[in-house]
Automatic annotation (TrEMBL), chains A, B, C, D:
Keywords: Hydrolase, One-carbon metabolism, Purine biosynthesis. Its EC number is 3.5.1.10. It comes from Cohnella candidum. SUPFAM superfamilies: ACT-like, Formyltransferase. This is Formyltetrahydrofolate deformylase.
């Protein structure tokens, strides 16, 4: 079964015109690598990089990411995909092929804290984030000037208990067909199941603790109260369970009794933006597969 | 108020005969450092190292650790302690003075996993752990030969649901007056409140997770199920709340989807022994103060 | 001897009006802490934090940093400093007192790479860098718009082999009496001994390697060629010896055979800005003492 | 060209009887993965894990490590190897196949420091080091009892300037045909080119610094003098250039001005044993390829 909805439609990079990335999950059995690599070879593709993982040699799942070059990819990809169903049917594969030249389009959702937003804008400007930032959506108007100075559209969608449904309708309208990935860059509103459903495994949140410790609100206050010696941040895909989705990346930093809650927040900001930026980089480079609420990260 | 029960009675190191360490906690107010350092100066002591921490300049607690040399310490310490009550009463201090030449006596409690025990034995043998390992107590007899080869007494105290009370009676008898610190080096039995009461803030446990994540049993299995990208270990003082006592030290290591539960255990063993050894080192060097279920660690 | 030239003259923060920081180095002998803390107590000061370090109890150097509050500091500081000479003469101290309310004034020197500059501007804007960025000086005009958008003066001082002396004359004129710290935030020109002399231990450079490995040019290329498994960055005070001054802070990140030189540069940018920002933070908070080409960092 | 001399002859593990690992290096061109995986599939092998790396898609080198299961491996491997020359000749491959069931045989060379030796003995005893420790060779007799208590032969080969040649002759005789990997676990003698030649890329040394900083003797003293803020250790293959061989693994730990040379040594011992153990683990699991004085580490 070919996964349908992922392929981004914009942001063409001519220099990578012939590069593609293939992600496959299927039940493990002998011959998968042979069949896929033989198929690609016959098509004239050159495998640049491949990573694979077998959960359990006996009856487990098999995951592979293959990066390949194929001359005249644009024209030949539809045929290649059609032909590949021979292979994929044989092994009951879930699979997708992404063209590296099509940058993924990101909508950044933010509230009042700007450190994650700034980090992403800067990495994007420096060319380190191979994606398109299509829009910033915020429940406040504070960062309009900053964002627009980067030439990026800014949408102020206020959210109050009364207008929550209407706000979400607006957010869906803004993003429909224009966004491949939603990033909650310290967006302090709960996302509804309906919105999540529209972006399955395509909403990344940064939680400001080392999950599963300190789920929910005020994690730095919780960390201070517990007297931990390391604080952390967690980037994860958003699912219906609060702070319970598949973890993409985590990191920590050492703290001591000297740090009060404000110090933890300051140190934490640094971890948050680093961890979130890494998670997004991996997503837009098609390095992440999700299986049973966990990520396989080919990084 | 002078804290009484801590002073170890054994393990004299002549080379440090004149070195002492003083730990003080009291409500903060002006003049504490002046009063204490003036007092020590008048006694003829030379301050080698001092670390202090004020929780909040306005009305918070004040903590200080002072390392000093005083000629002929052995003989003069009783008088010095008596005289110091002048100062301590003025500032409502809790305080203790430890002689560096008196090594703390440790009882190691173990079950079947030997990695923490081995690490401590090796650090002790290498001279990196400035303490005396007075005995090893285990609910199994497996490690007798190993432990006795280091010249350390080994006590096999089996524990079953029926004999738990009797076992604890034995443990208390073995350690009474002979042990300054109890280390649960992967000891897989719950310690009773009665035992804990006899060693307040003097039982250190190593928990094989990054607390407060994965409290309780099988933390590596829990970590695997949750798909975390870092696993950790936590050394903490034991209180009546399971895995809830003051955290002394924590550390983590990066893992990926490739690691199964057994891999996590293997990687975790390395973190556990490192973290536990650091916590013990800090304790026996009198670097830890406990206040409101948190540690102040002057390291 | 009171160290003269450091005290910044600008950037007053009223909220810290009564907070001061004292840095002292002197040969160790008994009674120093007592004398200083007694002196401060008699003046009515309250010690908030103190850190000390003795190189060697027998005949080594002694270093201390004391943070204290004194009501009406502004008015009483001159007298306090005069009176303190009694103490400082007795112990042959080098010492300085800094008022926390006077933010240090920084000149950022940059060339074409903007990541260190941006990090510092953001931290400054977020209130995490307790200093004043008085000016940016660059041998290129590229970053004028960015810098001026933060309301900071930008001085373009081109440097060619022929104009080097004249350029330096301009730089000295721009900074004379207006700058407490010069930060070389990836400034790709060699600073002359004459300039260094004007800012002793007050020029911080970020070198893009884990010194002393890969001194000099193209450190990432050198690191790639040697096949190291960690790359790093080093913030140090600038002395006449190239990349040889006292090290303030270092950090590293793991790399593998997969990373080419451009990847190392990208990863390195992240380490560089983090390490440089930490070093500057410590300097402006008066946490650094230099002794015999090494730093004592009370952090 | 099949690399000849590596295949260990001892230490059979029945549970892995059918598992093999293949390492290949060759100039990159299209079809390599297809050809190899097709070949393995036709032989009936199931690929469990594969990692590959292309230095440069245009004209660079290609490296791959494949782990596969093949029923009745023992009997069929000779034929498989013979048949594989068809593939390897076509792509000018250097290649080797290792049977996972044949544990590599290690000779540990030590002098007077025991921390690396102990770490390896424990990991081996705990089943974490999938190799056979065939012998310990030392220029001192100090650790005989310890080593023999693990049931491992101990050879005392004294080395003086006069007896160096004779000592090496003895070492070669002891190891000839009986050893797949020589580990210099803090062996403080220089190995001669002649000895190195006999074990190309099969001698691993632990150097007690973060190479290339502090090449040669007394690296901790050098680190202390330079005032670095991190110290490290480096495991590398031994070549004729002192401390100049391909780096396998490195790690570091934070230190401060408080640590004197002895403290650095103590902290360093912990890094050394960890880094060395990781490097050996990777070698014995056939995860390392050497190319142009660098390692490709599939870990």
């Amino acid at each position: 079964m070919k996964d349908q909805p992922y392929q981004p439609q914009a942001g063409i990079r001519p220099e990578n015109a012939d590069r593609a990335r293939m992600l496959i999950s299927c039940p493990d059995k002998p011959g998968i690598v042979a069949a896929v690599s033989q198929f690609l070879y016959e098509q004239g593709a050159n495998i640049i990089q491949s990573d694979q993982y077998t959960m359990d040699p006996e009856g487990g799942m098999f995951f592979i990411r293959i990066e390949f070059d194929l001359q005249d990819l644009e024209r030949r990809l539809p045929t290649l995909q059609e032909d590949f169903t021979r292979v994929s049917d044989r092994f009951s594969m879930r699979w997708s092929i992404f063209r590296a030249s099509r940058r993924k389009r990101i909508a950044l959702f933010v509230s009042k804290e700007d450190h994650c937003l700034l980090e992403l804008l800067w990495q994007w400007q420096a060319g380190d984030l191979d994606a398109e930032i299509s829009m910033v959506v915020s429940n406040h108007d504070d960062m309009r000037q900053l964002v627009e100075s980067f030439g990026i559209p800014y949408h102020h969608v206020p959210v109050t208990p009364d207008t929550k449904a209407e706000a979400e309708r607006q957010q869906l309208e803004l993003t429909a067909g224009k966004v491949d990935l939603v990033v909650l860059a310290r967006y302090m509103q709960i996302i509804s199941p309906k919105f999540i459903e529209r972006f399955p495994n395509r909403i990344i949140n940064i939680h400001h603790s080392f999950l599963p410790a300190f789920v929910g609100g005020k994690p730095y206050q919780q960390a201070y109260n517990r007297g931990v010696k390391l604080i952390g941040a967690t980037a994860h895909y958003v699912t219906e369970e609060l702070d319970g989705g598949p973890i993409i990346e985590q990191d920590v930093q050492r703290v001591s009794h000297r740090e009060n809650v404000n110090d933890l927040k300051r140190i934490g900001r640094h971890i948050e933006r680093t961890v979130l930026a890494r998670a997004i980089k991996w997503h837009v480079e098609d390095r992440l597969l999700v299986y049973q609420n966990k990520t396989v990260a080919f990084v």
